[in-house]
User: Fold this.
Amino acid sequence: MLNTVDVRELHREVTEWRRYLHQHPELDYQLHNTARFVCEKLASFGINHIETGIAETGIVALIQGGGGDGDGPTIGLRADMDALPIIEASNQPWSSTIPGKMHACGHDGHTAMLLGAAKYLASTRNFKGTVALIFQPAEEGALGGLRMVQEGIMDRFSISQVFGMHNEPGIEVGKFAICDGPILAALDEFDLVVKGKGGHAAAPHETIDPVVIAAQIILGLQTLVSRSTDPLEALVVSVTMLKGAEAFNIIPDQVEMTGTVRTLVPSLRDFAESRILACAQGTARGYGADVELRYRRHDPVTFNSAAETKLAVKAACRLVGTGSVDQKVKPQMGSEDFAYMLEARPGAFILLGNGATASLHNPAYDFNDEALLYGIGYWVHLVESVLAP
Assistant:
């Protein structure tokens, strides 16, 4: 899988790093200990071009290949570093030591794998050009990827292509999955306020009950998916939170609803925004109420460009063989702010098997350490293939 280094020793080291990060999760942009840990490791590998403070706690480090003159293109490899506000229930010896925070999406593994690849590449430098190691904060909803792009990392470090990787429970360890075109959905969020007339729960006829109206709106929104869009064009509308009165015997003046919209076709974002408002208004006004909509565009579609997808497939196949790489995986309706980097530069996002573990964002989830060497091997093969000397 890897040459010139002791693979078993590398696996042991990276496993220790991963478990340390898992024990010390941090959220959003507040990744001060994580960033310090990453920088210390990078420096210990002999990497002397390390830039910090990008998007607050993000890091970009450069490894030059060959003779160290940087002759050749620069490709970016990205790992996310942040955790989630979840109480851990994995019962592992390396469980989170921070109450209410845990690495429930495997970003500890992503960071550790990129560090492992950095150690290997810094020792061999069997490539021509430069590798930009991108350690990103705030992937979980706070748009750290967008901020790194807005702060100019692509131009600043002359990155011509960018690649990302994410672990995937349900795919066997040692296998990969990818497709060209859309691989993950765009994410939008909405807040919908139903404004009625409150009163006593014993006298609903004297109110305009926003709770009943909100229930009708929730059911009506599902027809946008089942009756108003092409069934071959994926659209998911989910109402995920409701807030009404604070007491059991009160009909409130208003109900607040929050939800998400996920699409693979950009035009459906405009459709969803306009039709959610129209559907909600029509229902509410029919009962004598009204609505207020706040709609926010979040992550765009994660779109793999064709040429870079072929490069990713080639690297994965060299590592594990063609039979272990699903090259036409079905797009998923989850989202990723790596999409902003793919809007800025051509690239590809690949899924790495995590085995039969708990699902992502589940309190019982844990990154599978058996997958670490496959992630490291993929990064190494990708660099040595794309930047072949």
Summary: The domain at 7-183+302-386 is CATH 3.40.630.10 (Aminopeptidase). The chain has two domains: 7-183+302-386, 186-297. Residues 348 and 370 are 23 Å apart (CA to CA). The mean pLDDT is 96.
